[in-house]
Amino acid sequence: MHKKATLVLENGLVFHGKSIGINGSIIGELVFNTAMTGYQEILSDPSYLNQIITFTFPQIGNTGINTEDEESYRIHASGIIIHTLTKKSSNYRSQHSLKTYLIRNNIVGISNIDTRQITRILRKLGSQKGCIFTEETESYYSAYQKIKSFSGLEHKNLTTLVSIKKDYQFSPKKNNDYNKNYTQHLNIAVYDFGIKNNILNILHQKKCISHVFPPESTAEKIINTYKKNKKKLHGIILSNGPGDPRPCINILYEIKKLLSLHIPILGICFGHQLLALANGAVIKKMKSGHHGANHPVKNVITNKVIITSQNHNFTIDINTLPKNIIITHISLFDTTIQGIELVNAPAIGFQGHPESAPGPQDAVYFFDLFIHKIHHLKKQYNDNYN
User: Fold this and answer.
1) Tally of helices (H runs) and strands (E runs) in the chain
2) Residue of 147, 157, 163, 140 lying closest to 46 (CA atoms)
3) Which pTM does this prediction carry?
4) What is the full per-residue pLDDT of the chain (386 aa) written as tens digits?
5) Is residue 311 marked as binding?
6) How far apart, in whole angstroms, are the C-alpha atoms of residue 226 and residue 209?
7) Is residue 241 marked as binding?
8) In which domain, by residue range, is 114 found?
9) Degrees to nearest 5, angle at CA 312 with 15 and 30
10) Where is the active site (predicted)?
11) In the chain, how many domains are there?
12) How far is CA 90 from CA 21, 56, 80, 358, in A?
């Protein structure tokens, strides 16, 4: 029998439903995600730290949970709001149910909620702070007091809460060819601000050997790591991550030093925003953010449109772009900046998630653009691959 659960929003609205996770109480910032599939990848995306995800698709849990689709080692979202929890999962890859997954990860969730109404509220009023609690754990008054005391996502550096503490060389779980000596491999330094596993998997598929570094890593630490191992550093990835990039002052300082080395850089989502900040642009909070796997993005140079996976609450202020940043892509939902390229350095950024997981793979070519920049420089300087 399901326990009762309650959702309270900062605007005072109250919703009653059923508990689908552990007994308890959580607070977070509500966002809505419009993806029709991939709830496991979404829940395990570190970018959702301190957020409560409202799934607009009415039926969640129908394909169960499996270990292969994890984008990180645990659920990072604070909680989950859905309309209907599927009673039985039916997929040959399923290992256990969504409810079991939520309980194992100590997540509070609520079902039997009109998620369309929640979505309309978020679209009209913007992101809302909220509290989900199961019966006998809170009262409406105590939940509302917790909401008032929750400071939200702005002006917080959350990267250290979801990233690694020690650098390592990535080795995929399912790939027997990793130890092959590629005749033409690329050495990539990856900043982990809350990275998704599929970014590293795609880099591996494209013959890149990734060395992953914590967000506190200095430019000198990265360079010296490759010098010590007598390896050439070919490129740098600035990964996705949670929260507000603006407080990451130390990280911005290191990015500026890396840019001066003229090594190709690809910024993804949070990393895209950091790249813009490091070059003098301004980042601002969005009304309700972009969260889903069906967002159209236009290449303003070629006029081609791709469908993308998105997950962000902050964006580059288009009115603050310095002259050395070129806009390459925009959102067709609200014309916010989706892609940038630097004039004075071999660096590009993409606001969406080119690794998808979940979502369409239209934007995977951003990895190819990044690798093309590496090969172009190597050819220009007649460099070898070691």
Assistant:
1) 10, 19
2) 163
3) 0.95
4) 579 999 999 999 999 999 999 999 999 999 999 999 999 999 999 999 999 999 999 999 999 999 999 999 999 999 999 999 998 999 999 999 999 999 999 999 999 999 999 999 999 999 999 999 998 889 999 999 999 999 999 999 999 999 999 999 999 876 545 445 555 699 999 999 999 999 999 999 999 999 999 999 999 999 999 999 999 999 999 999 999 999 999 999 999 999 999 999 999 999 999 999 999 999 999 999 999 999 999 999 999 999 999 999 999 999 999 999 999 999 999 999 999 999 999 999 999 999 999 999 999 999 999 999 999 887 776 665 44
5) yes
6) 12
7) yes
8) 4-149
9) 10
10) 269 (nucleophile), 353, 355
11) 2
12) 20, 21, 21, 19
Please tell me whether 273 is known to bind a ligand: yes
Q: Is 270 left (phi over 0), alpha (psi -120 to 50) or beta?
A: alpha
The answer to whether 324 is annotated as binding is no
Residue 278 lies in a domain: yes
193 marked as binding residue: no
The answer on 324 and 298 residing in a single domain is yes
Q: Based on the domain organization, do 139 and 236 belong to the same domain?
A: no
Tell whether residue 105 is among the known ligand binding residues.
Answer: no
Which amino acid appears at position 353 of this protein? H
Strand arrangement of the beta sheet that strand 305-316 belongs to: 168-169, 208-213, 186-191, 235-238, 265-268, 347-350, 337-342, 325-331, 283-299, 305-316
Among the three residues 149, 172, 206, which one is the final residue of a domain in this structure?
149
In a shared domain, residues 122 and 212: no
d(CA 30, CA 52): 5
* Judgement on whether residues 132 and 267 belong to the same structural domain of the protein: no
Token pair for 139: 């009262």
Two structure tokens written together for 153? 């996502």
32 is in an annotated binding site: no
Would you state the structure tokens that stand for residue 158, as one six-digit string?
A: 């959350």
